[in-house]
Amino acid sequence: MENTVFNLKFLAKTLKRQSKTCMKDHDKETREVKKAMKSNNIEIARIHASNAIRKKNESINLLRLSSRIDAAASRIDTAAKMQRVTGSMGKVVGEIDRALQKNMNLDKVSQIMDTFESQSENLDLHAKYMEESMNSTTTMTTPQEEVDTLLQKVADEAGLEMSQELGGVHVPQEPLPEDDRLNERLANLRNAI
């Protein structure tokens, strides 16, 4: 059983690494969207945006699968621990019977009961952990709205303006008020030198 738990945890870790790789691919595709939009290639930007969303969803699904496998490994590990605790409890009950039948040694009975209660608490903790580790999951789809939202987000970050139908992208020609203030400050500094 320990070998199975190890293999499952290893698989979960591998899936987590693959998820991170997919997120890096998502970031790369997002940069390509920005680059294509600056070049006014909306169709190529759409393709990269679609790829970015697909990679993001793939990353989420891999992470979700990793979590489920890790939860299964935890359940198997908990079951193995419960099996060991159950065996220990059986031994404790046998020791209590022997202690009661021999002399009615209350110190020995008290010590055995303390051990029994400790193992019961451990069993409860393992059961609680197992319950908390399980979550329900849902699958995600990539609707066109997500592609458009990503395109708009990238355009906003790049300082580009998109037309409503995403037919064209253009860079704003008018300088921003902040740019005017910065240019004025730079000119004042140059004059002061």
Per-chain topology:
Layout: H1 2-38, H2 42-102, H3 106-133, H4 144-158, E1 161-162, E2 169-170, H5 177-192
Antiparallel strand pairs: 1-2
Description:
With 193 residues, this protein is mainly alpha-helical. It has 5 helices and 2 strands; from the N terminus they run ααααββα. It has a two-stranded antiparallel ribbon. A hairpin with a 6-residue loop joins strand 1 (161-162) and strand 2 (169-170). Helix 1 (2-38) crosses helix 4 (144-158). The longest helix is centred in the middle third of the chain and has 61 residues, at 42-102.
Summarize model confidence as the mean pLDDT: 75
Major β-sheet profile: 2 strands, antiparallel
Question: SS-based structural class?
Answer: mainly alpha
Q: SSE string, helix = H, strand = E?
A: HHHHEEH
Keywords:
mainly alpha; two-stranded antiparallel ribbon
Short description:
The chain has 193 residues and is mostly helical. It has helices at 2-38, 42-102, 106-133, 144-158, 177-192; strands at 161-162, 169-170. Helix 1 (2-38) packs across helix 4.
